[in-house]
Amino acid sequence: MNIRESLEEREIAILSPFASHSRDSRGRDRREEECDIRTVYQRDRDRILHSKSFRRLKDKTQVFLAPQGDHYRNRLTHTLEVSQTARTIAKALCLNEDLVEAIALGHDLGHTPFGHAGEHALDQVSQEGFAHNEQSVRVVEVLESKGRGRRGLNLTWEVRDGIANHRTSGTPHTLEGQIVRLCDKISYIHHDMDDAQRAGMLTEDDIPITLRMTLGYNTKERLNTLIHDIVDNSTGKDRICMSQDIEEAMMDLRAIMFQNVYRNPVAKKEEKKATDMLIGLFHYYMEHPVEMSREYRELIADQGEPVERVVCDYISGMTDQYSMDKFNQIFVPKCWSVY
Hints:
The chain has a single domain, classed as Hypothetical protein af1432 (Orthogonal Bundle), CATH 1.10.3210. It is about 60% helix and about 0% strand. It is built from 16 helices and 2 strands. Strands 1-2 form a two-stranded antiparallel sheet. The chain is flat.
């Protein structure tokens, strides 16, 4: 028995009967030889962690566009906080931490530059529409490369299902996916409020006292309350859930964030510029697809992918700064001089 097989046996002995056991995975689209050390979900986690799209998350907006300060979250720090919160809950419930971590690390790989402003921009101009969870699946299935000319990371069905269904409207088929879906919401409410307080846009006094009495009197207390509530109400069950009181309080807190932060004209005053910029880039590359990077041109020439689909791939893969650089290069005139 090799190390992987020993780990699989340990999962059977230790994890909940409701957990997704590695050896029972539905598998990959392309059959592969098993690793002698890592389980299938550990391999998926590693493939995501080492991907280019994962590294680009560090330069993509979470909420605040180009914030002046080193402590504001970006898309990568959001991803890491989702992962850690989800792993804490998975461990407490004796579920598969490796699967939870893989889903969490991959859930936002398809996010656009400038956060949801970028997502709305592409959704507005693309005839097929654009949703970042669907794009995240496309990243791991098509756009990232596993090497030797193969497209996609060939992840397991369970990881791709969790990524595809991490939005509020999604219905993950595994408990591990359900954990990530909830932790994504919990994490952005928690850390976006923390960032909003740092920016002076929100104070604890703006939160009704009834919510503070229910959830906690600061961001750390509220995170602790939410995590404990999920663990207490999901233990021994075949679904991940919260108590009605805590879930309602969390959604009330989310509504406060939308009113005071997500739709705040001060925080969002640059979003119109970002949206117009990405729409301009979309129309430009629709007319000049040959100016995209080689791997995207090959999707059109060799794989027969529609130009519009690949243009969305190209733009959504950009970081904030790269998209601004490209816009300046294409649309902003250079000073003329004679040498």
